[in-house]
Specification:
Keywords: Nucleotidyltransferase, RNA-directed DNA polymerase, Transferase
Protein name: Reverse transcriptase domain-containing protein
GO molecular function, one term: RNA-directed DNA polymerase activity
Structural class: mainly alpha
Organism: Tanacetum coccineum
Order of helices and strands: HHHHHHHHHHH
Pfam families: Retrotrans_gag
Oligomer: single chain
Length: 192
């Protein structure tokens, strides 16, 4: 238990320079020098629970017994967490958001960042990687997917890099504007 408290103190101390953010930073987390997790048990993952999650975990330990609870497989642990903290109506909402997520204008970075966030929450919609690539391409602005498919990206990383390049090129040659308006030879003027 002292190790957990020491790690929490290290995280709090390492987090002091994060611009006033009261949450934890990745840098602070890495400063804890935690041991690598092998996925065979849940002891270390569960030791970071607080509030409602901690209450839930303590109930699991009471019901199953300490050894059985900390010895369960990672897959079973994840399934229990999803069942408790990700109700089906919330999962459906996330799945809908994922399917309807679209790039707006030339904002490739914002589209890609949100795609990654959603993909983490609905991993069953992006596995295998070919499905992830297909889903990513489907949400790009209409000017990009055809050109991107020609390059036949085999990893999500290559699809993201190439679509970013194609987006920049489309902006440079005027087929895509930052305001999501196609140029058709006539410049739009603003009304006074």
């Amino acid at each position: 238990m002292n190790t957990v408290n020491n790690n929490n103190n290290s995280m709090n101390n390492a987090n002091n320079g994060n611009g006033g953010n009261n949450g934890f930073s990745y840098k602070g987390f890495m400063a804890c020098n935690l041991k690598e997790y092998d996925g065979k048990g849940v002891k270390f993952a569960a030791s970071s629970f607080i509030n409602k999650a901690l209450t839930w975990w303590n109930t699991q330990v009471q019901e199953r017994g300490r050894e059985a609870a900390i010895g369960m497989s990672w897959a079973n642990f994840k399934a229990l967490l999803v069942e408790e903290f990700c109700p089906s109506n919330k999962m459906e909402k996330l799945e809908n958001e994922f399917w309807n997520h679209k790039m707006v204008g030339a904002n490739h970075a914002a589209y890609t960042n949100r795609f990654h966030e959603l993909a983490k929450l609905v991993p069953h919609l992006v596995t295998p990687e070919s499905l992830c690539i297909k889903s990513y391409i489907a949400g790009l602005v209409p000017e990009i997917p055809g050109m991107l498919r020609v390059t036949q990206p085999t990893t999500i990383h290559s699809a993201i890099l190439r679509s970013g390049i194609l987006t920049d090129e489309a902006v440079s040659c005027g087929t895509l504007t930052k305001g999501n308006e196609k140029r058709n030879g006539v410049e739009k003027t603003s009304k006074p």
